[in-house]
């Protein structure tokens, strides 16, 4: 059972996608797991053959529990026994006991492609929908009814509790420092308008992809911010996987990863960002998208906020915040003229970097945005 969030302690195995004897390759989806953040597709990270499934669908188990055994290519692996059912109790970190999910709860996972497409369009999390079709299948009518109804209180209360636990841990354990700067966006916004005038509407770029790409490229200059804190020290990452904070329709947020952002073109990044937002709000994420972020970007400018100082998502060591683009007086060639500007901030772990390095990082983001054609 993978850890799919900073304070995740257990997850419920909903369904197996693979069976004993099936050959699997790295990246294949092998199972679906439900957490407070929704229904997550679990990927495999080795090539081999499924030998045995150790956990039955409907069972809630602690993170780290073996779910299946896999025989890697050319390696004989003995079949392990299922883990002990006992779960520690009595302390503040005790886990809830394993308990099955009712059959009706399992049946609601069946959904037709048409209903899933509608759920994405209406931003309905399919993990919250109870099906009324044959054998409990989710229908288009179920999606429409859920979209018109308030979200389930219990599920979103648990999500808020999970977010609260992660953020409390972050502020308690991570010595944050904060730096900020104002970035003049005239060159970036002018270039963006020119680009979009030549593109079909479906392929137009949002200015947020410029910000995300600039962050990724700036990390090449200040690589210590692209890391996670593990075993009492920072572990730098060679890959740049940017977590993007995305608000959920029913409340709360998640910050899944856009992988290898520094290697993507802006067009690729825009397509992947659109896809990620749609899948987040439809309740369809992959486990790697929740476990892989090496830094997070939060951009709540569309909400009218000019400045945001984020709280670091453990085990990451930095989060970048962008506010909305606003027009302000700006000095250009000795004259005061109106210019679009935005405020960029960095919240970083003082155990890993200091304000000097943080300031250089924001200066690099600023410089990159002045040459948008090179992003």
| Assembly context of the chains | single chain
Structural category = alpha+beta
Helix content: 25-40%
Question: Treating each run of at least 4 consecutive H or I residues as one helix, how many helices?
Answer: 9
Give the uncertain stretches in residue-range form.
79-109
Structure summary, number of beta strands: 19
Overall CATH architecture of the largest domain: 2-Layer Sandwich
Question: What would the principal axes of the Cα set say about the shape?
Answer: globular
Distance between the termini: 38 Å
CATH superfamily of the largest domain: Chloramphenicol acetyltransferase-like domain
Quote the average pLDDT.
84
Which CATH class of the largest domain?
Alpha Beta
SSE series: EEEEEEEHHHHEHHEEEEEEHEHEEEEH
Q: What's the main sheet like?
A: 7 strands, mixed
State which percent range the strand residues make up. 25-35%
How many domains in all? 3
Query: What is the third-level CATH name, the topology of the largest domain?
Result: Chloramphenicol Acetyltransferase
């Amino acid at each position: 059972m993978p850890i799919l969030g900073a304070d995740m302690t257990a997850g419920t195995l909903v369904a197996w996608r693979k069976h004993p004897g099936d050959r699997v390759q790295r990246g294949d989806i092998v199972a679906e797991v439900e957490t407070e953040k929704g229904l997550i597709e679990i990927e495999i990270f080795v090539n081999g053959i499924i030998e045995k499934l150790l956990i039955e669908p409907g069972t809630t188990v602690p993170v780290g529990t073996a779910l299946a055994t896999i025989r890697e290519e050319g390696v004989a692996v003995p079949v392990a026994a299922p883990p002990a059912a006992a779960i520690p109790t009595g302390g503040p970190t005790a886990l809830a006991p394993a308990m099955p999910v009712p059959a009706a709860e399992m049946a609601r996972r069946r959904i037709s492609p048409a209903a899933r497409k509608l759920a994405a369009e209406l931003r309905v999390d399919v993990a919250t929908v109870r099906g009324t079709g044959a054998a409990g299948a989710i229908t288009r009518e179920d999606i429409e009814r859920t979209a018109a109804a308030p979200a389930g209180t219990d599920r979103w209360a648990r999500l808020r509790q999970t977010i609260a636990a992660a953020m409390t841990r972050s502020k308690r354990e991570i010595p944050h420092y904060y730096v900020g700067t104002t970035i003049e966006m005239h060159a970036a916004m002018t270039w963006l308008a020119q680009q979009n005038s030549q593109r079909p509407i479906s392929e137009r770029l949002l200015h947020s992809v410029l910000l995300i790409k600039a962050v990724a490229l700036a990390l090449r200059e200040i690589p210590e911010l692209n890391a996670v804190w593990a075993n009492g020290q920072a572990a730098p990452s060679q890959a740049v996987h940017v977590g993007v904070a995305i608000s959920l329709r029913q409340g709360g947020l998640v910050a899944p990863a856009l992988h290898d952002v520094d290697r993507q073109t802006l067009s690729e990044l825009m397509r992947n960002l659109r896809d990620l937002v749609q899948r987040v709000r439809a309740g369809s994420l992959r486990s790697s998208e929740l476990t892989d972020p090496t830094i997070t970007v939060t951009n709540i400018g569309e909400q009218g906020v000019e400045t945001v100082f984020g709280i670091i998502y453990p085990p990451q060591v930095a989060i970048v915040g962008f506010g909305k683009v606003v027009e302000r007086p700006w000095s250009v060639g000795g004259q005061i003229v109106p210019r679009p500007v935005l405020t960029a901030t960095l919240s970083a772990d003082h155990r890993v970097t200091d304000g000097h390095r943080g300031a250089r990082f924001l200066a690099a983001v600023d410089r990159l945005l002045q040459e948008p054609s090179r992003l």
